[in-house]
Write a structure and sequence with these properties.
135 residues, alpha+beta, five-stranded mixed sheet
Length: 135
C-alpha cells in the first residue's frame, strides 16, 4: 500500500478527487486531482523557481467533501491539508507559491499576510511533524 518517495518538500495531490460537485471526471475521463497535478507541473515548467517542489500523487486523501485536496509537507515542518480547489493554473500556482513559502519558513508556519490569495479559506487541517506537537 505504501510506496517510497524521495523525502523533502512536496505537494501530495489526491489523484482521485472529483472534478466538481456535478462531475467526477472531465470529458476525457480524468479526475480533478489528476488535472490539478498536471496544472502544477505546467506552472513549474513555466516558472523554474517553483520546480524544486516535488509533486506526488496518491489516491484519496480522505477529504472527499473538499476536493481537489492536497497535502503540503516537508521534513521537520508542520504540514497542511487544503481543499476546495478548481483544477486550474490559478489554483496550482497558489498552492506552489504557498509551498515555496512553507519551505522557506523554519517550522512550516507562514504568516497569514504572506499567504497567496488563492489558498486563503482552503485549509482543512494542520499536521505536526513526527516527534512534535504544536504549541
Amino acid at each position: 500500500m505504501l510506496r517510497a518517495v524521495e523525502p523533502g518538500p512536496s505537494v501530495v495531490v489526491c489523484s482521485t478527487c472529483r472534478l466538481s460537485a456535478e462531475a467526477r471526471e472531465d470529458e476525457g475521463g480524468r479526475r480533478g486531482g489528476t488535472l490539478l497535478a498536471d496544472a502544477m507541473r505546467q506552472v513549474q515548467s513555466a516558472e523554474p523557481a517553483l520546480g524544486h517542489i516535488a509533486i506526488q500523487e496518491m489516491p484519496c486523501l480522505f477529504a472527499c467533501q473538499r476536493y481537489c485536496a492536497v497535502h503540503i509537507r516537508a521534513p521537520g515542518r508542520v504540514g497542511y491539508v487544503l481543499g476546495d480547489f478548481t483544477p486550474d493554473e490559478a489554483s496550482a500556482r497558489a498552492v506552489l507559491e504557498y509551498t515555496a513559502l512553507h519551505m522557506q519558513s523554519e517550522e512550516g508556519v507562514v504568516p497569514y499576510g504572506q499567504w497567496p490569495q488563492g489558498v486563503k479559506g482552503h485549509f482543512i487541517t494542520r499536521t505536526p511533524p513526527e516527534g512534535f506537537v504544536c504549541t
